[in-house]
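testing teh design pipeline on a random one, pls ignore if ur not involved
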């Protein structure tokens, strides 16, 4: 079990009231010792560093960050004020989470709070991320009942996400794309994209011809392609493995389309 450090709840809450790039999670990686699985990931929808506390959280974060209707993701979101969850726990006859050392009630949090927007409307969705087997433990279920009641009072649905909701191929592809960097030359990127629908070449030959025409470092064309996929400007089926050899040997018309 990872060692935790004391949290000044009042001070931390002041930093959790923002959205977008200004948001700071109630629980951060610095609140734990070096033991345990803590992943710090750079977001694309909102370009900031996220604090995720399991591979499963990271997997669901990657999928949400890819969703075109998601406009904000806030991790480790506090269920504030604490008095609300204390009252819910009392009403349901469930023990409220406490600090094991002091016995004092602790602030509950939701793993992921997501803002979605579509057709000019925005709404919130809350997600509890747990391995399926653990999610069925009575104590875990009890805490989720408190969390669910809290969000119901806010008019926000709470959904349980487990490993059963994860497509491993999609996640592996998203992990690959997470390391792709944006080409520095914006004009070059636009030129690359505009020429894609015109090419009758295999992608390997197209990348090579593009690099040679503009006297670019070999691999620049491939980098442009990968970035456009990452930035959702190219629609590629992520349920299929993104093997570079397969991409390079394919023809554009058989591969994908520009969005």
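output:
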């Amino acid at each position: 079990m990872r060692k935790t450090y004391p949290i000044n709840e009042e001070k931390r809450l002041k930093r959790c009231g923002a959205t977008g790039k200004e948001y700071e999670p109630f629980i951060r990686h610095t609140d734990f010792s070096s033991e345990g699985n803590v992943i710090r990931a750079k977001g694309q929808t909102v370009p900031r560093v996220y604090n995720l506390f399991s591979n499963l959280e990271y997997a669901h974060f990657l999928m949400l960050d890819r969703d075109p209707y998601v406009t904000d993701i806030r991790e480790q979101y506090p269920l504030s004020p604490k008095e609300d969850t204390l009252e819910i726990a009392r009403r349901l006859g469930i023990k409220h989470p406490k600090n094991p050392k002091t016995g004092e009630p602790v602030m509950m949090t939701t793993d992921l709070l997501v803002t979605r927007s579509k057709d000019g409307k925005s709404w919130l969705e809350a997600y509890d991320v747990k391995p399926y087997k653990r999610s069925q433990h009575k104590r875990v279920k009890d805490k989720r009942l408190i969390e669910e009641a809290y969000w119901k009072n806010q008019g926000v649905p709470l959904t349980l996400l487990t490993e059963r909701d994860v497509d491993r191929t999609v996640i592996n592809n998203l992990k690959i794309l997470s390391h792709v960097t944006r080409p520095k030359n914006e004009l070059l990127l636009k030129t690359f994209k505009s020429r894609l629908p015109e090419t009758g070449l295999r992608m390997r030959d197209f990348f090579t011809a593009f690099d040679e025409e503009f006297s670019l470092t070999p691999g620049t064309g491939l980098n442009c392609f990968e970035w456009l996929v990452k930035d959702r400007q190219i629609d590629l089926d992520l349920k299929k493995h993104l093997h570079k050899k397969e991409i390079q040997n394919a023809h554009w018309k058989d591969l994908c389309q520009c969005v």
